[in-house]
UniProtKB/TrEMBL annotation:
Signal peptide: none
Protein name stated in the entry: Beta-ketoacyl synthase N-terminal-like domain-containing protein
Residues covered by the Beta-ketoacyl synthase-like N-terminal domain: 5-216
InterPro entries tied to this protein: Beta-ketoacyl_synthase, Ketoacyl_synth_N, Thiolase-like
Matching Pfam families: ketoacyl-synt
Superkingdom to which the source organism belongs: Bacteria
Keywords on record: Transferase
Length: 374
């Protein structure tokens, strides 16, 4: 690692395992199932099961000040960013303007968008709506509120790209770093479970929607020099993110394009496939998941690779899925000091015809419970 390399020096998550990195790492590595039965009185949805953040109540987690009109997706994001501040101290950089935020999301909160639209249509007049809830209908609300609440004054960006969202956010954050736009960058993805999301997925799948999940995962990115200056241990070095497309949406073509994407990542990084010891794949249900499995077997030596599969444990977390995959790699690396210096790979494939991967070089292992978290 050089002083100019982009490194991951921290991370946190709000997930179906609970609040913070430690419960996420412990639950994931133990293979604990988070999908549970839904109360139909609380959730009038077509699903009977989902993976929810347990007992997540915004005023309880964040307090009552400034949260009256905050929706679920914003609460998840603000809470996760707050956990990073709690763990790594009140000052992530010397100046607030040196801390940027790149947050991935789907469409923001479809629940807020549809509720606000319904109020406009069913009210006595179209403008008889709650103006305090209008910001929730904008896609970048979660990122904006996270910056406001935690006084982040650096670049603030919202990225959306389906299952690849977390990888796209990492790529965007890497560009900010290379161009000197921000000294410290918080980067991740967020997704909420809601009544409207459940019904949309159900209709899109012709009544066969996947088991849905929710949560948020955020990485703390900075240069090696910055990590050294603030006394943070580099957990991994970001080698980059690579992407491809298969416009015909053919699973065979998806396999070919993803295999080429991973091969390009290894070639560009000057690394051999045998150096990849950890893989966190997306593995969506159906033919695309089979295509992803095939692509990985085409490129990597399966007998030396440890696979960490999040989807079966966390449900379909959509825009947050790739960020959870990256967090899973860091959690697994933290439990395996022998993997220091090897490579970790996250891959994803989206039904809209895109694939992507991110490659990390694992640093010195650090215990997940380093620092303090609630």
């Amino acid at each position: 690692m050089s002083r100019t390399d982009l490194v991951v020096s921290g991370w946190s998550a709000v997930s179906p395992y609970g609040l913070g990195a430690e419960p996420f790492a412990a639950g994931l590595l133990a293979g604990d199932q988070t999908v549970g039965q839904l109360d139909p009185e609380v959730w009038p949805v077509p699903d009977d099961r989902a993976a929810l953040v347990p007992d997540f109540d915004i005023p309880t987690v964040l307090g009552t000040k400034g949260t009256r009109s905050m929706d679920r997706i914003t609460g998840l994001a603000v809470s996760t960013v707050g956990l990073l501040f709690t763990r790594y101290g009140p000052k992530l950089a010397d100046r607030p303007e040196d801390v940027g935020l790149v947050l991935g999301t789907g469409s923001g909160s479809v629940q807020s968008i549809m509720d606000f639209t319904r109020d406009s249509l069913t009210g006595e007049k179209p403008f008889h709506v709650d103006p305090a809830r209008f910001p929730n209908t904008v896609m970048n609300c979660a990122a904006g509120q996270s910056a406001i609440r935690h006084q982040l004054k650096g670049p603030n960006t919202t990225v959306s790209g389906g299952a690849l969202t977390g990888l796209l956010a990492l790529n965007y954050a890497s560009r900010l770093h290379r161009r000197g736009r921000s000294e410290v960058i918080l980067c991740g993805g967020v997704e909420e479970y809601s009544v409207q999301r459940s019904w949309l997925e159900w209709h899109a799948g012709d009544g066969a929607a996947p088991t849905l999940g929710e949560g948020c995962a955020v990485l703390l990115l900075e240069s090696g020099a910055s990590a050294q200056r603030y006394g943070r241990r580099p957990l991994a070095t970001v080698l980059g993110a690579w992407f491809g497309a298969f416009p015909d949406r053919s699973p065979d073509r998806a396999r070919e394009v993803l295999a080429g994407c991973v091969s390009r990542a290894l070639r560009d990084s000057g690394a051999a496939g045998s150096r990849v010891r950890l893989v966190a794949p997306a593995f969506p249900a159906g033919p695309l998941g089979d295509a992803e499995r095939g692509a990985l077997s085409d490129v990597l030596a399966d007998d030396t690779v440890v696979r960490i599969e999040c989807r079966d444990l966390l449900g379909d977390t959509a825009a947050a899925s790739a960020s959870f995959q990256l967090a899973a790699l860091l959690a697994a690396a933290g439990a395996r000091p022998d993997l220091a210096g090897t490579l970790a790979l996250a891959t994803s494939v989206d039904q809209e015809g895109t694939v992507g991967c991110a490659l990390l070089r694992i640093g010195s292992a650090a215990p997940v419970n380093e620092g303090t978290e609630p």
